[in-house]
Design goal:
Layout (H helix, E strand, L loop, with lengths): L3 H45 L5 E4 L3 H12 L4 E5 L2 H10 L3 E3 L5 H6 L7 E4 L4 H14 L4 E5 L6 H7 L3 E3 L1 H14 L1 H8 L3 E2 L2 E9 L15 H4 L4 E6 L5 E3 L12 E7 H11 L4
Parallel strand pairs: 1-2, 1-4, 2-3, 4-5, 5-6
Antiparallel strand pairs: 7-8, 8-11, 9-10, 9-11
Helix pairs in contact: 7-8
Length: 278
């Protein structure tokens, strides 16, 4: 049995041990919090510097595919998500993200919506998509917004809310399966993006801004076909009119979206000419 002084010493040692454990635990938590704050601060600075980017609302199954596609294309984007499990996944992938509700004005402003080129809303329900589209369009009317319709009857509501394009996954997959059965060669050509004769051929949609040197020129006068060997398949006018296989005398206007086929490098050059501020 321990003497009185021995018991006191034992108690002191136990208390010192507990104090050490508490200190180390507190220090560890402090370091983790500081590390998170540093990473979060770095990410916030990157988000603040974004421009001409895409805002992706929702990182579920479809949102992940969207982000992977944007990352592959090296297109700048930021994700808005509030599910803790999905946020961990975003962290592991190194994608820029903001934690919050995508239909919140403040959250969308934090995602630099004023400088964004487009928004893709693929949150879990049609109601949330409607609110997100409404909020986004109220903050930036000219923003190009794409969303998903979960239910078949949701498309009119989403378009009324301001969505420029509404994607219905089941309809899209059904059409794709039909084309694969009826026209497999064409679909495979489009999917593999036609790498032939050592040339990387791609299809791109390019927006013409008012500062572009192409404005006011017709296709024959422009360097697109003559110097860059780019084929313009269609022109989407600002008023919604679609010009399929436009003639060489068709004049290019500000706000036109050109659907072009050509070598990837030449298409990037076209994007720079079409949107010098990009």
């Amino acid at each position: 049995p321990l003497s009185e002084s021995g018991r006191i010493l034992t108690v002191v040692i136990i208390m010192l041990g507990l104090a050490s454990i508490a200190y180390l635990g507190g220090r560890t938590i402090q370091l983790l919090v500081e590390s998170y704050m540093v990473r979060r601060g770095r990410m916030n600075r990157k988000i603040s510097s974004l421009k001409n980017h895409i805002i992706v609302c929702g990182f579920g199954r479809m949102g992940r595919h969207v982000c992977d596609g944007l990352a592959t294309e090296k297109a700048p984007f930021v994700v808005i998500e509030q599910d803790p499990e999905l946020i961990e996944r975003l962290d592991s992938l190194g994608y820029l993200y903001i934690v919050g509700n995508a239909s919140s004005d403040d959250i969308l402003r934090s995602a630099q919506i004023e400088k964004a080129r487009g928004l893709i809303s693929v949150v879990s329900s049609d109601a949330e998509n409607v609110f997100t589209v409404l909020t986004a369009k109220s903050l930036k009317t000219e923003l190009f917004v794409i969303t998903r319709a979960v239910q078949e009857n949701a498309e009119p509501k989403l378009k009324t809310a301001g969505a420029d394009r509404v994607i219905k996954p089941y309809e899209l997959v059904g059409h794709r399966l039909t084309q694969l059965v009826l026209r497999p060669g064409i679909v495979e050509y489009m999917e593999t993006v036609a790498k032939a004769h050592g040339q990387d051929i791609s299809i791109e949609e390019v927006l013409l801004c008012e500062e572009s040197s192409l404005i006011g020129k017709n296709l024959a006068e422009s360097p697109l076909r003559r110097e860059m060997n780019i084929i313009i398949v269609a022109i989407h006018r600002k008023n919604g009119k679609l010009l399929y296989n436009p003639s060489s005398m068709e004049t290019l206007e500000a706000g036109d979206r050109l659907v072009a086929i050509g070598e990837t490098g030449k298409l990037k050059k076209l994007s720079q000419i079409a949107f010098p501020a990009n």
